[in-house]
Amino acid sequence: MSNQTYTKLKALHLSGMAECYKEMVIEREGGVLTAEEVLTLMVDREEDKRVSTKRQRLIQKAAFEQPQASLSEIDYDEGRILDRGVVLRLETCDFIDKSRNIVIMGATGSGKSYLACALGMSACLKLYSVRFTRMRSLLDDLRLASDLKHTRYSKELKKCNLLIIDDWMLSEIDELETQFLYELIHDRELTDGTSTMLC
Q1: Residue 30: partners with Cβ closer than 8 Å, 6 or more residues away
Q2: Domains along the chain?
Q3: Cα(40)–Cα(72) distance, integer angstroms
Q4: Tell me, what's the pLDDT at 1?
Q5: What angle do CA 8, 13, 45 make, to 5 degrees?
Q6: 131 and 160 in contact (C-beta within 8 Å)?
Q7: What are the CA-CA distances from residue 165 to residues 43, 100, 103 (Å)?
Q8: Cβ burial 114-131 (10 Å sphere, 16+ → b, else e)
Q9: What pLDDT sits at residue 147?
Q10: Is the Cβ–Cβ distance between 129 and 85 less than 8 Å?
Q11: To the nearest 10°, the Cα dihedral for 66, 70, 75, 76?
Q12: What is the pLDDT at residue 50?
């Protein structure tokens, strides 16, 4: 019966519960547990597995330029003029819940992109959807996309919790591109729980 239950849990795509069941029942690890304790452990394991899988999917879909970026690696030397308190407040992702936009400014090579990726990574770990793109790539993708693909891509950008646009206004844009950027940012401002980060 034990192996059948394990197989059924796997077939139902409850792999976290299946592994927990295998450890507790099939391999007979641990002492005697009540049915409620077993069920609680299995449900907790399944939830942990699903949250972990969701985090990995969010990180992959975000397409960070620097996926190794971490807020714990930020350098706060005096010459950088980077306020640790501000970064720690941003790490909470409260600005996303309040639909506040963020602009990261600094000289070329000062670490704006790294900081944006680190904040985006923090948001993914808190289960917010994030998209990272360079402004020129964003505009080129939209220009080349078919109408249907363009509409789908635009909707995705408008709905994600945090949109990070790197290299903001680094190159000139034409009237059509200006209109698209205006509509994108305007629509995101009308959507609760979304924030745009420009760097």
Answers
A1: 23, 24
A2: 2-62 (no CATH), 84-198 (3.40.50.300)
A3: 34
A4: 47
A5: 95
A6: yes
A7: 38, 15, 10
A8: bbbbbbbbbbbeeebbbb
A9: 64
A10: no
A11: 130
A12: 93
- Strand pairing category for 102-103 and 130-134: unpaired
Which residue has tokens 């069920």? 39
Q: What pLDDT is attached to residue 74? A: 92
Give dist(CA 127, CA 137) in Å, integer: 25
Task: Identify the pLDDT of residue 159.
Answer: 92
**HSE (side-chain half, CA atoms, 13 Å) at 41:** 15
Q: What is the mean pLDDT of each run of 10 residues along the chain (199 residues)?
A: 76 83 67 76 88 97 96 87 93 96 91 96 98 93 70 84 95 89 90 95
